[in-house]
Amino acid sequence: MNSQRFMIIPFISFLAACTSTTVVLLPDSDGNVGQVEMITDSGTTVLNKAYESSEAEKQKLSSTPNVLLSKEIVRDKYGDILAKEPLIPEHFKFYFKTGKADLQAEAQEMLLKSKARIEERKSCDLSVIGHTDRVENDDLNYLLSMVRAANVAKALVDLGIPLNCMDIRYYGESYPVIPTLDDVAEPLNRRVEIEIR
């Protein structure tokens, strides 16, 4: 899923008795930049570079030419707004053997990392989501994904993460990372994902 971060800053000028909206396109945490279109009666302005900005005055219904701002200028000018931005969700994945729901040996290190991030973020908003590949039938896979999710949730509880902070879901083979035909074993689809918000 492509997403983009941008902030819209409404300005009100009491002296000029007009309002305007400024849009600044921000890169994702991994540096990727999406695209934003500002549409007014005068046309469309496209922002597609990191820290690119444009302003539209509502009375005139037109936008100013795009301006490329530096990261430092954005931080200095809009730091208070950026400080209030919610943290981007983090994901941790646990993989399973075909038809199995027990955590593998390498899962302990990932559990400790996820626990550390939950505590650092002071989060009580996480999802634990179970999945399977397409080996076996739909009903068995649904149950298997439920047990996998429950096992990861229990491991987190054993590490001190409150159960009431978790939304536990399971989808069987419904949302594969790699789509396959029936009865095809795909290790990347046999997973539980933790999303920390």
TrEMBL record:
Primary location recorded for the protein, binned into one broad class: membrane
Gene3D superfamilies xref list: OmpA-like domain
CDD domains: OmpA_C-like
Entry's localization field: Cell outer membrane
Top-level taxon in the UniProt lineage: Bacteria
Residue span, OmpA-like domain: 83-197
Keywords: Cell outer membrane, Membrane, Signal
Residues of the signal peptide: 1-22
Keyword Signal: yes
Pfam families: OmpA
InterPro entries according to UniProt: Bact_OuterMem_StrucFunc, OMP_bac, OmpA-like, OmpA-like_sf
GO CC annotation, single: cell outer membrane
Protein name: Outer membrane protein
Phylogenetic placement of the source organism: Bacteria, Pseudomonadati, Pseudomonadota, Gammaproteobacteria, Methylococcales
